[in-house]
Amino acid sequence: MTDQQSGPRHDLLIGGERAEPASGEYLDTVDPATGDAFAEVAVADDTDVDRAVRAARDAFPTWRDTDPAVRGRTLNRIAESIRDHADDLAAVESRDQGKPVSQARSDIVSAARYFEYYAGAADKLEGRSVPVGTGQVDYTLREPYGVSAQIIPWNFPGNLFARGVAPALAAGNAVVVKPAPTTPLSAYRFAELCAEAGVPEGVVNVVSGGGDTGSALTAHDGIDTITFTGSVATGQRVMTAAAEHVTPVTLELGGKNPAIVYPDTDLEAAVSWIERGIFTNGGQVCSAADRAIVHESVYKAFVERIVARAESYDLGPGADDPDMGPLNSEQHRERVREYVAVGVEEGATVATGGESPDHEGYFFEPTVLADVDNRMRIAQEEIFGPVLSVIPYGDDDDPVAIGNDTNYGLVAGVFTEDVRRAHRAAQRLEAGNVYINKWFGDTNQTPFGGYKQSGIGREKGLEALESYLQSKNVAVNLERGGGGDLPGA
User: Is 252 a catalytic residue?
Assistant: First the structure.
């Protein structure tokens, strides 16, 4: 916390107005490329969260009852506005999060696409007629929950704002957004664009802060549904808080994602995809290609090629648009460094990387750990950094079983020229998304979510709307007089 302003000050956004935090506390937001604070952001306490939830509850009926076609046109205007401001938004995101500005711009363009995609769904959220016989008409309605709490992480802050807020708004909900404390700026700007596009005051609220702010939000009895993206440990705490009021949750948690390289694969293509899968955004991606499970016949060649790729990476501030920017915080960089040390202690070999460059900022070299056994911590726990664990397997081993041998199940990849082998592996892999001969194969239109401890529910695609809609059944008696219906019939 700070008492002296270190740059522009960003207050909370509640009920369509900027509001100073009740406590008067502000948090520095820091440029990861330099470690220098460049803005201050309000820290919301219980009182502020309560004000935001009440504002959302007051605004909800108006937005719910807005003609769905009008809601859709409003979301389309948001998409257009995001595209119009893409360069400025990308610059904000790059400085706040650390990623190369071209990657930040891709995130922003994708955010616009979320609003555009769900705009088209707003007037198509139909119920159905249930055939129950001639004496009764029975139909279902799909209705918004009410107020959605959106807790977004620091790795793709603007993009994931859109991923959750767009379907929530399309379905007719109001939202209270809690961005990560290290990357709060894009959430405020996105919320302003929503208002400028015609979203009524109080429908989109933003309360920044750390864990205490998030806890106040998830425990609030005025929240009707929760969407959280982050670590398993925090997701478990969210579930515990939600249980108090039986609040439904959608959780997108961590991953320890296997990329299986079969001996018949196009090795150059596999290396290219896996390189992108692990080093994009400094490996700070839930769906990163954390574990390469490589057949022993191509293992040496794979390691040599991906080491060469890693060593060619240019590191620098996001504004310079390098191959890879810094990690998001000093604390996180030290966590990644500790995992590399653990891997060496367990018997892994540092094929390349494993250190921080000798200059300012929170940089960490693209790292390849060879000779990894799947039972090692570095193969079981999410590092969330630019660290690839390469695991060899032989003819007597089942690479799919190795891939499944973890508590996670977010994504998995298969690299092979044998179409039958690819489909058989896809059927057996315990993951919500399977990529074949590529990585990051999901789009705005495809459902995304995990098995096991990687989460509950699905985001993206039409499936995401299920997190923001509840079904109501209406049964209309067409007969006169009394009846003989009983429960459970």
Answer: yes
